[in-house]
């Protein structure tokens, strides 16, 4: 190996920063010790990503991070974690920023950690955003969901009218009550609900276009038959004469 290559490799190893990712207790994750052992943290940049597994102290340790800009992502089976931007300068100073997916890389949020990674490991906090839901929660029984049904509302309104109408009629003065009864008699609804008209109503004839019995109208099919019968009767009388 050439001396220049060996020197650059040793220089990169010596100047590498130390980074420790910690998980604070938040309402979404009150006890980080419940995380499974498959939880990992990844530093993504140009080249091969760096990966660290969760330790017994609920931390992720990166012992040697070269200068550059990285995206820190935590992968967990049951929880979501916020992504962070990690900047490591040439003098091994580390700065962690809050970043936002879908926005420009330069759009940075609040600072989550600052320190010199050469002397000691810089601690950076990564907060849990929430738990993963793999199954839809079945909605329970609720009276409000029943009352939202239009058919139930119409039935309740009709019941209120049926129950409350007698009390309303009793409290009316005689003149208003007489006017109301007269209006009911003249309304088409009361005429349609008449018992005699409903019993004598021919639904099949009405659908076929046949007029009612009291209208006196005749259909085009009945008129030729009537003329034939009347003509036959007259002709028969003449032959007898």
From TrEMBL:
Residues 31-154 form the ER membrane protein complex subunit 7 beta-sandwich domain. The chain crosses the membrane at residues 151-169. Keywords: Membrane, Signal, Transmembrane, Transmembrane helix. It is a single-pass membrane protein. It comes from the Eukaryota. It is found in: Membrane. Residues 206-241 are annotated as: Disordered. Residues 1-16 form the signal peptide. InterPro entries: Beta_sandwich_EMC7, EMC7. GO terms for cellular component: EMC complex. PANTHER family: ER MEMBRANE PROTEIN COMPLEX SUBUNIT 7. This is ER membrane protein complex subunit 7 beta-sandwich domain-containing protein. The lineage of its organism: Eukaryota, Fungi, Dikarya, Ascomycota, Pezizomycotina.
